[in-house]
Specification:
The chain is about 35% helix and about 20% strand. The protein is α+β, with helices and mostly antiparallel strands. The protein folds into 3 domains: about 5-165, 3-Layer(aba) Sandwich (Aminopeptidase), CATH 3.40.630; about 185-405, Type I PLP-dependent aspartate aminotransferase-like (Major domain) (Aspartate Aminotransferase, domain 2, 3-Layer(aba) Sandwich); about 410-529, Alpha-Beta Complex (Aspartate Aminotransferase, domain 1), CATH 3.90.1150.10. The strands form 4 sheets. It has a 7-stranded mixed β-sheet, with helices on both faces. Strands 8-16-15-12-11-9-10 form a 7-stranded mixed β-sheet, with helices on both faces. The chain has a 4-stranded antiparallel β-sheet with strand order 17-19-21-20. Helix 8 (about 220-230) packs parallel to helix 9 and helix 10 (about 270-280) packs parallel to helix 11. The longest helix has 19 residues, at about 410-425. It starts with a strand and ends with a helix. It binds pyridoxal-5'-phosphate. The site of pyridoxal-5'-phosphate has 14 residues, from helix 8 and helix 9. Pyridoxal-5'-phosphate binds near residues 218, 243 and 244.
Length: about 525
């Protein structure tokens, strides 16, 4: 599709008024605006900084302008408007027009570009976000078209901002759709756990293929509620030693006696052969459960865990805090029926800033979890008939979660592209977390790479000196000061070695390939020096 972008002239403008005759309602709004301006005004420098059109074989296929504000105190700002002909949407033309106009605004030494757009026009919103526009406000019921009220958002690009080149190890992507949802909650006047949380739970259920989703204020609360509800104080349960601290302390808080198991050196997940050995040796001595953790989002071998469940009559709690969106054995993580917990902390694949959930197919268990997260209140208000805490999330957070859920596939796709790029570029220098054949989708909450344990800190420091933040492995739980007394005799070789060789490379939902290139260049530099 060939086209050229030129400054507007009188002939173009006359054509604009006849060219686009089959306009959608939304485009019509824009063209009404243009048509209400006198051609002389569109051509004069007093009202516009720039007006351009895109031509293809003399046909008008695009239009863009930067309009001035009348007020003298708004001389540093302009309003942007663009239109792309139906056949040219989704092609490079919109990018070209945006690039042209942003350059023009810089040439005019403007400090801010402002625009407004229909809140339903997600394609346009995504285009503006790609160029760095951020949402500034939501105007409900702002336009009445064909008897339907439309919400409008305003977005802005700040041209003076010094964009830092710092690349963090993780970064949430909270953008326009999340802010629109948040504004809906604020407008509704219902902020605490309510209808948005219910909708978020519905989405989670559908997405994960489970009968119950119980959302909590963080992943650790989700774990606590499960341990408090499923086990008794004194129950012995198997845990991997390499995991985040709250996998364990959420259990010990409720009197569970942990038995630590070593991990597989290639995935970092619990070694199920070693778990089975412990179960076999302890047969008859009541080990009540197993807590596999999906490290970085890599699913545990869940079929094998079910074999252990059947053989040794143990309960399963899957700590999938890092694994939302993962698929193993062709089934989404969370769909198997056992208690599966997710975290929606800001570093996770979808976030509610802080948040978590338990997925289960057991209705009664789901009911107990709901009770536990709300002080143990019975069906009679202000009557508490079981122990509980306040582990509720707010509707403000659930609104963010709902918007994030819609983007989960795109987030995971981007993360997989980043990991493929790292792997292809760094294959000679680093090893990467093994992906087992039963894993259909690895959501890559983290990108775990391995280096020589004597080199790993050097790479980390070299990256940091280049404004790139990676993350080093942390000591396994039996080596953490908080658990020193509990596991004084424990030695788990693979967990100890693993934590020394791990370096998590930067990865996040909105990460660009150019940022991954900067990481790769710097790692290559670390090996050259
Ligand atoms: C494996 C694992 N378990 C539990 C948690 C706790 O989740 P949250 O931070 O939401 O409490 C995390 C998150 O950091 C985690 O990675």
């Amino acid at each position: 599709m060939k086209y050229k972008i030129v400054k507007v002239n009188r002939a173009h403008l006359e054509k604009i008024r006849t060219s686009f005759d089959s306009l959608s309602e939304q485009d019509r709004i824009f063209f009404d605006f243009i048509q209400n301006i006198r051609i002389d005004e569109l051509l004069s420098k007093s009202r516009f900084f720039d007006v351009i059109v895109a031509l293809s074989n003399k046909e008008l296929v695009g239009y863009g302008h930067l309009e001035k504000f009348k007020q003298p105190y708004k001389k540093h700002v302009c309003k942007l408007g663009i239109f792309i002909a139906e056949d040219y949407r989704g092609t490079a033309l919109s990018n070209k027009i945006m690039e042209y106009l942003i350059k023009s605004a810089r040439r005019h030494k403007l400090r801010k570009i402002w625009l407004s757009c229909n809140s339903q026009n997600l394609r346009a919103i995504k285009l503006y976000e790609r160029f760095g526009f951020v949402i500034e406000g939501v105007f409900f019921d702002e336009e009445l078209r064909k008897n339907k009220l439309n919400d409008i958002i305003s977005m802005a690009l700040y041209l003076t901002e010094d964009k830092s080149s710092f690349i963090p190890w993780s970064k949430p992507a909270i953008r326009s759709e999340e802010v629109i949802q948040l504004h809906k909650v604020i407008k509704s006047d219902w902020f605490s756990q309510g209808p948005m949380t219910k909708s978020f739970e519905e989405e989670l259920k559908i997405r994960c293929g489970a009968k119950n989703a119980v959302v909590m204020n963080n992943g650790s609360s989700a774990l606590m509620s499960v341990f408090a509800t499923m086990f008794k104080p004194g129950d012995r349960v198997l845990f991997p030693s390499f995991t985040f601290v709250s996998t364990l302390n959420s259990a010990t808080t409720f009197g569970i006696k942990p038995i630590l198991v070593d991990i597989e050196p290639t995935t970092g997940n619990i070694d199920l052969d070693k778990a089975e050995k412990i179960l076999r040796e302890n047969k008859g001595k009541d080990i009540m459960g197993i807590v596999p953790v999906d490290i970085a989002g890599h699913s545990v071998d869940i079929k094998r865990v079910y074999e252990l469940q059947d053989k040794y009559n143990i309960k399963i709690v899957e700590d999938a805090a890092e694994a939302i969106g993962g698929i193993a054995y062709k089934r989404p993580i969370g769909s198997w029926g056992h208690a599966t917990i997710f975290s929606f902390h800001a570093a996770k694949n979808i976030t509610t800033v802080e948040g978590g959930a338990v997925l289960t197919n057991d209705e009664e268990f789901g009911h107990s979890l709901r009770k536990f997260r709300s002080h143990g209140e019975s069906s009679t208000k202000f009557q508490w008939d079981s122990y509980g805490l306040n582990l509720r999330i707010t509707d403000l957070q659930a609104a963010i979660g709902l918007a994030q859920m819609k983007k989960l596939d795109a987030f995971i796709k981007n993360r997989n592209e980043i990991v493929s790029f790292y792997k292809s570029e760094l294959a000679n220098l680093l090893e990467f977390q093994e992906v087992k054949e039963y894993v259909d989708v690895h959501p890559y909450m983290m990108c775990i790479a391995y280096a020589d344990k004597n080199k790993v800190k050097e790479i980390y420091d070299y990256l940091l000196n280049g404004d790139i933040q990676a993350r080093l492995g942390w000591a396994p739980l039996h080596k953490q000061p908080v658990f020193r007394n509990l596991f004084r005799q424990v030695k788990l070789k693979e967990s100890e070695e693993f934590s020394k060789k791990v370096i998590c490379l930067p990865i996040y939902n909105g990460m660009k390939i150019t940022e991954a290139e900067a990481v790769v260049d710097r790692i290559k530099g670390a090996f050259r020096e």
